[in-house]
Amino acid sequence: MFDDGYQEVPAGLEELPVGAGLAAVLERIDPLRVSPYDTVRLVAAQHRQLAHQQACFHVAAREASLADPAAPGGRAELDVPAAGDELRAVLAASRTAVGRVLDLAEAAERHPRLGAAWQAGRVDEQRVAILVRRTAPLSQEHASEVIERLVDEAGSLTLSRLIDKVEALAKALDPEWAEKLYRRHRRQRRVRARCTEAGTVNISAMDLPLPGGVTTTRRIHALAARAQAAGHPGLIDTIRADTFLAVWDPAHAGASEEEIVAAVLAAALPDDPQPRRTPDPADAPPEDPPSTPSRRRRSTRQSRFELRVGLATLLRIDDRPARLPGWGVVPAGTARELAAAYGDAEWRVAVTDESGALIAALITRHRPSEATTTPQEPPIEGAPRPVVELHVPEAALDALRPGDFPGWARLLTDLQHQLACWRTARAEDRAAREAEQRAAEQRAAEERAAKEWAAEQRAAEDQTAEDRASELSPASECSAADAPGNPTAGLSPFGQTIGPDAAAWERIAARRRRRAREAVARFPSAALRRWITMRDRSCVFPPCGASALEAEIDHTLSVLERGLTVGSNLGPACGHDHDLKDQGWQLDQPRPGWFRWTSPTGHTYDRPPRPVVDDLPAAHPPAVRSSAEPHQYADDGPLWENDPYPRTPARAPAPETPPPTGRPPPPDDPDPPPF
C-alpha cells in the first residue's frame, strides 16, 4: 500500500478550523498511507474535530430535550419530559445516561467560554465532564470562577492534573466548605464487601480519615515490599492483596511483622502472575538453595509519604489547601494534622519568588512544639524517609517575626538564618563572577595597550641611529612595561579589581571545588538531588505526573556522553519515561528546568518549568453556600452489598401484651449443652 509513496498531508493542518472544512480534508486522507511524521499530525487534527462533533451532538441533544410542537417556534423554555424520553429511545440509553448528556449540554450553554472552547475543539468531552461534574457541588458563583480559570489550559492538562487543579481552586475559594466536606464524608466511613460473578470477593473501605488511611496503606505496601524482597515471585499488587489478608486474618492476631511476611510468602500460588521482565542470569537460584529465603536484588518502588503545604497554612495565617502527591488536595485542617503527626519526617522548605519559582531549597532539623517526633511507623529497611515540604515566598519569610509564633520560633529563626546564608553565598558568587569579568576585560585592555605601545616602539626604531641617540632618556633603561607612555605601567598582572575580600574568596573557592567534584561524579549529592526534585516537582515527560521523589534523577546528556552532574543537566524521570531515551526519544534542556522531548517521528514536546506554588485565589465565601452532602451514607445494614443472607422482611407489629413479670423457667431438656 506504500508502492506510490506516502500520501501528502496538507500544510497548515494544525491551523485549519474545525468544522465542515476540516472534516472534508480529513475524509480524503487515508491514515494507512501517510508518513510516520504526518500520522501524529493527523491524530491531533482528528482529536480536534472529534471534540467539535461531540459539542455539536450535545447541542442537538439539548435542543431535542426542548422540542415541543405545541410551543411557539416548536421550542419550549423548559425541558420537556416527553422529549427526554424520546432521547432515551433514539439513543437506546437509560435515563441516567441521557441525564448526563443533557447536564453537559446545559453547562456548555450556562458557561459560554466553556461552550466556545468545546465547539472550537480545544477541550473534549472528558475534560468538559470533569469541569462540570467536579464543580457541581459548588455554588454557581464558585463553579463559574473555577471553570473560567481553567477552560483555557484544560486541553493541555491530563485528566488527573485537571481534577487536581479543580479541587485546589475549589478548596482555596472556600476553605470552610472544604473542611465541612471532609468532616461530613468522614462521618459516613464504612466497609463494604461484594462477591463477584467469578466467586472472588471485593472488600472496600470508604470515606476513611485521611491520616489513618495513609498510614494503613503505607504499612500494607511496606510489608508487601519486604515480602517481595524476601523472594515472593508475584506482582506487587498480588503481594499487597496477600498482605491485606494476612494482616486481618484472625490466625495472625498478635503476629510480628516477620511472621506476617512469612505468611505472605507461604500464600504465594504457583500460577500467580509474575513481573514481565527479561530473566537476568544473576537472578538464577544457586545449585543448593538455602533453607531460609535470601534477599533478592529486585525491589519495588516504595510509596513515599510526601506532604506539600504552605508555611503560612501551618502557622494558621491562611487556610490554603495542601497537596499529598498520589492522594490529592487536602484541606488546611487535615494538612496541619498530618504535619504534626509526621514530625519525624524530613522537613524541606522551598523558598519562592513572586512568580512561585524556586530560589532556595532549605532543610531544617527544628520542629514546632505541636509536632510529634516519634516515628509513625516502624523503620523499614530500604524504605525512604517521609517528606514534609513547606513552601513560603521570600518576602513572606523575611516579614515573619519568630516571637509572634512561640511554638515555631526556633524553626522560623533557623529558616531565616539559612536564607541569609543562601543569599550571602549567592551574592558572593555573583560578585566573584562580576569581578572576574572586570578583570578579564581589564587584562584584555592592558594587552591591547601593550601591543599598541610596542608597535609605536618598533616604529621609532626605524629612525636613524643619530636620531634615536638624541631621543634616549634615563627612563629608557627601565623595562618596556614601565616606560613612560605605557598605559599598563604600575598595574599588577591581573589589573585592579574590586570584588569579594580574602575570606569571601576562600568560601567561593571552596564552593567551586565542591561543585567541580560533584559535576564529574556519577550521582548527585543529597543537596543537589533535593534542589532538582523541588524545582521540577514531577517526572519531566510532559503528561506525566509521577512525583519527583518517586522518580530517578536522570542526566539529560548522559555521563557516557560526558554529561555533567549539574542542575542544568539533571531532571527527574519515572521508570517508564526514563527508558524512552533508549527507544528513540531525544531529550534536551534548553535552560535549567525547561525540558524538550523529540519523538522518533520528529515531533517536539516542551515541558516548561512548573511553579512550586500554584496561583490560587484568595478565599471568599459565596453568597449561596456550596453543597457538602456525601454521595453515600453509612447505615446499620449488612456488610455485603449483595447480602446472601438478607434480613427477614419487616412484619406487622404484634399486639401489645403486658411484659412478663420475671424470667420464664428454662425448658425441661435433660440433654447436655452442645458446647
TrEMBL record:
- Top-level taxon of origin: Bacteria
Sequence segments annotated as region (Disordered): 270-303, 433-497, 597-675
Q: Which residues form a coiled coil?
A: none
Q: Sorted alphabetically, which InterPro entries does this protein's record hold?
A: HNH_nuc
Compositional bias, Pro residues, is annotated for 282-292, 655-667
**Bias-annotated ranges (Basic and acidic residues):** 433-470, 604-613
Protein name (record): DUF222 domain-containing protein
Q: Which organism is it from?
A: Actinomycetospora succinea
- What does the record give as the organism's lineage? Bacteria, Bacillati, Actinomycetota, Actinomycetes, Pseudonocardiales
